Amino acid sequence: MALVEPVTQRRTARLRALLHDPSLTFLMEAHNALSARIAQEAGFPALWASGLTISAALGVRDSNEASWTQVLEVLEFMSDATTVPILMDGDSGHGNFNTLRRLIRKLEQRGIAGVCVEDKLFPKTNSFLRADRQALAGVDEFCGKIRAARDCLLDGEFVVVARTEALIAGRGLDEALRRAEAYRRAGADAIVVHSKQPEPNEAFAFTREWADRLPVVLIPTRYFATPANAFREQGVSAVIWANHLLRGSIVRMQEIAERIRREESAAGVEAAIAPLAEVFRLQGDDELEEAERRYLGGPS
Amino acid sequence: MALVEPVTQRRTARLRALLHDPSLTFLMEAHNALSARIAQEAGFPALWASGLTISAALGVRDSNEASWTQVLEVLEFMSDATTVPILMDGDSGHGNFNTLRRLIRKLEQRGIAGVCVEDKLFPKTNSFLRADRQALAGVDEFCGKIRAARDCLLDGEFVVVARTEALIAGRGLDEALRRAEAYRRAGADAIVVHSKQPEPNEAFAFTREWADRLPVVLIPTRYFATPANAFREQGVSAVIWANHLLRGSIVRMQEIAERIRREESAAGVEAAIAPLAEVFRLQGDDELEEAERRYLGGPS
Amino acid sequence: MALVEPVTQRRTARLRALLHDPSLTFLMEAHNALSARIAQEAGFPALWASGLTISAALGVRDSNEASWTQVLEVLEFMSDATTVPILMDGDSGHGNFNTLRRLIRKLEQRGIAGVCVEDKLFPKTNSFLRADRQALAGVDEFCGKIRAARDCLLDGEFVVVARTEALIAGRGLDEALRRAEAYRRAGADAIVVHSKQPEPNEAFAFTREWADRLPVVLIPTRYFATPANAFREQGVSAVIWANHLLRGSIVRMQEIAERIRREESAAGVEAAIAPLAEVFRLQGDDELEEAERRYLGGPS
Amino acid sequence: MALVEPVTQRRTARLRALLHDPSLTFLMEAHNALSARIAQEAGFPALWASGLTISAALGVRDSNEASWTQVLEVLEFMSDATTVPILMDGDSGHGNFNTLRRLIRKLEQRGIAGVCVEDKLFPKTNSFLRADRQALAGVDEFCGKIRAARDCLLDGEFVVVARTEALIAGRGLDEALRRAEAYRRAGADAIVVHSKQPEPNEAFAFTREWADRLPVVLIPTRYFATPANAFREQGVSAVIWANHLLRGSIVRMQEIAERIRREESAAGVEAAIAPLAEVFRLQGDDELEEAERRYLGGPS
């Protein structure tokens, strides 16, 4: 499919524009090329390559068990299967400033539009797990990472988002604001402030104090019930639905596997699953069929 | 998760036993580690690593667009996330007899239980597409592949399944029987006879004539409505549900993506998607939490 | 090292210019990033990423035993470590026209300047081995490959070289000329005519008849004694030293390994091997040292 | 080549025996499959997969710029091309205890005999560079790594070597001894004490005090002039020639590249480089030629 659609660097400029646009943007999670394609077709203007869901799809923990090049390969397939910009969940940068530089160089080559880096240690622990292990990186060290990231770009439009886990680590609003400001001065293009509260109060306290110094991106996995207009009123730039396609697919695959197992037949689920033609369509088989006619001539 | 469960070669013996057992076995498709884990938890005693669904998940066509080592990496994650035997859809062997030998060596190392090789050319075309391009490999060349596969095994229990596409290619029952017999003599452990008819007549005509010279495996993607007992009456050894988890997940992801997009909120789908705790459970996070206590001591 | 030198697409234009320039160009073989760096430092304006030597360095046969993505990874490291254009030995394209398109897309992303594709089957056999297995691809099928290669380019400067093995396969000069002309019409940018004769007569017979319809590239592995001016007189565009760094390193590593083994000491070889400082220099460690000062501040 | 020689787990037992044997063993560095094959043919009973030379061959810095899975792939080719045991230079374990567990699981699958882990941070800095950045890991944290490594083994013979960089970091003999003892109690199979002095005094001060509580392995890159018998008198178990094949190949490749460039001809070096037949022999082409006769029948 990617064969007919040029993978250009312009996705970086589009992601940058979405973040700076005054209207609220929604990014949908994707964990492989197929889910990325589906999210794009549903109309999302940008995608979130989630560390949690990519690791879950790979069958490993969200603790940097997959190497950064294994994750990169997933990203490359996602990029090839889509045309909208992809923001990579870069965890803590997979090491130090230099590891992050290498990651970014490779993301640029593969047509990824930006990376989000969080101020935790390597290997990371998922933000919703083990509150007692959510240690933060030093501010100076993390600012060095952001500066290195910006300095190494070949395409100046590539987006570097800084994510602070200060609220996750229980360090409070002042620390979150202090860190966000330091990351802004170090060159970040946008700020993610993460919160695991079931209400948006904590996140919104941040946005109020922050006063739009840089675009703010939120990930309301826990405060999912917050209406879109509440984000708009806070001047939030973008909201990430960080894991929903994977979570939906888990339930459905469990139901189908259990039913086919129990009934010893796939007849009962046939009406509820995509026809083969839809699988082939999502793979972009039509382009290949036409190309075979063009380049292979008659049937071999 | 795999860290606490030894990946042993014994999966090969278990797959072999399932195929030779007089009772009917069902294999469920998996296209990544997560779907493999789900299929195992649903009770399937063995898995089918499908070429179609793995390529679809990767966003490429079922025409060997992913290299054999890229597919191998998917298989390795699947193997690490499960304990039941996995039969790999090896397409036409990714080249000649020597390519197949290399593939098998790597499958053995990664704990895969067997490979199914089909008598088509490289690169392959999906059996349900472009009937006019379904050319078959020469019988001698394909028998050479099977002999090479058997001769290179380190673990004699590794299963080599030969799949004939004679019916797919419109070459008729006699050709299918002639080829299956040749593959049996070359050392195949079981035979897949593939059919794209919406009824099992063609496949069952084969099983009747074949008379159980080797275990027969069927893939009723098109004749899904056939009852399990009909397979039993034909003495079929195993049935593969070759793409159902992927097809189910496509519909569900499309629904979720579209609804969240339309409603600008994830609130409407929250009840229908797996909770985060279920994602963490499927990743085996409990083992890591315990290991962190054991090896890291107090919180870092 | 690559971190400070932009990997641009402009290498494609430079390779194209070298081939069309009336002066004779020499390309040196490289089989990994280190040998590529050394060849560049010695002054070669372009590199040949050899299928034979890359496979030998990987410890596998020159018969497409390494998958195309494994070879691609070697190429990516080579590209990152250099700034001169690299021409990839693409064997027979690792499959059909579609496989070649995928390869080229990935080569473009990784900053490789061109690919050379030969009119043999997949998997290939090295041209100096087993004359009885050097079967040629059909002309129409191979021309389809070249057309597909040209049509899929994002960067129109990317170089597609067509290599005919007609002389290797014993098919004679007329067949070589007929094929080269067909490949030219299909869109090739240059022609490699390969010969295993110890004298250049066969190759020069081709260049005389060919009359410079497209740039001609020769690989005088066997007719190495031919003086440079003889190539110039024939109007040859480029000469590839296709395996010399690897072959030199083999002898030296064998000598060193045997001597250290025999003497139970490395003292005897110390003067003849590169100092550690030279290893660090070739790795570009100076850039990292400076970057650590810039981004890490004081010693950690 | 690996196709005819089983890759068994028994290499682990052989490496273990070599380390515990009272006689002095020499390990030769290898940085890819070819150099590994050459070192084995020269008679070395075991190989050292060096972090420095593998990174140099890949064109990156010895600072964990290559991901652990990229290094693993190099190791896999090395393992496939040899039969002697390989000890991997595992740097600081590529992260924490859990990353090390994952690495070890993959090393076991690929037939690697053991891993050497050093008490530095991630990403590491080469021991001969930037003395001011050679910070050590905490003793407790590093002992947790060793315990985790031992606990996760499927093959109890797999060798876990602990390397202390206390002398490199300028922390003195007492610290080196204290750490080595802690690592012994945590389950290490052998100790590497690294020194960058041009004389072995520092290392030998360690061996005298250590009194053979566990086998000691030394890496005399700087004190290369020490005679073998001096190591024997100290009861040293093994000596690693850690980078000599690569350093020898660098000089030779530089000479050849420069000479061919200057002379515009390869004629001058032909006598000094391996003949093509030697390249094919090292690749194990004879096995493939025979297999083609067996499995392909007549020439295709």
Give a verbal description of the structure.
- The structure is a homotetramer of 300-residue chains.
- By secondary structure, chain A is α/β, with parallel strands linked by helices.
- In chain A, 46% of the residues lie in helices and 12% in strands.
- Chain A has twelve helices and eight strands.
- In chain A, β7, α9 and β8 form a beta-alpha-beta unit.
- In chain A, α2 runs parallel beside α4.
- The longest helix of chain A has 20 residues.
- The N terminus of chain A is likely disordered.
- Chains A and C meet through α5, α6 and α12 of A and α5, α6 and α12 of C.
Task: Give a summary of the structure in a few sentences.
With 300 residues, the first copy, chain A, is of the alpha/beta class. The first copy, chain A, has 12 helices and 8 strands.
- Described by the principal axes of the CA atoms, the overall outline of chain A is globular
Q: What is the count of DSSP helices of chain A, taking H or I runs of 4+ residues?
A: 12
How is the main sheet of chain A built?
8 strands, parallel, barrel
Find the structural class of chain A using helix and strand composition: alpha/beta
Mean pLDDT of chain A: 95
Beta-strand residue fraction of chain A: 5-15%
Q: How many beta strands in the DSSP annotation of chain A?
A: 8
Low-pLDDT stretches of chain A are: 1-7
- Cα-atom Rg of chain A, whole angstroms? 20 Å
Largest interface: A-B, 90 and 90 residues
* Helix proportion of chain A: 40-55%
Separation of the first and last Cα atoms of chain A: 23 Å
Order of helices and strands of chain A: HEHEHHEHEHEHEHEHEHHH
Cross-sheet strand order for the largest sheet of chain A: 1-2-3-4-5-6-7-8
Quaternary state, please? homotetramer
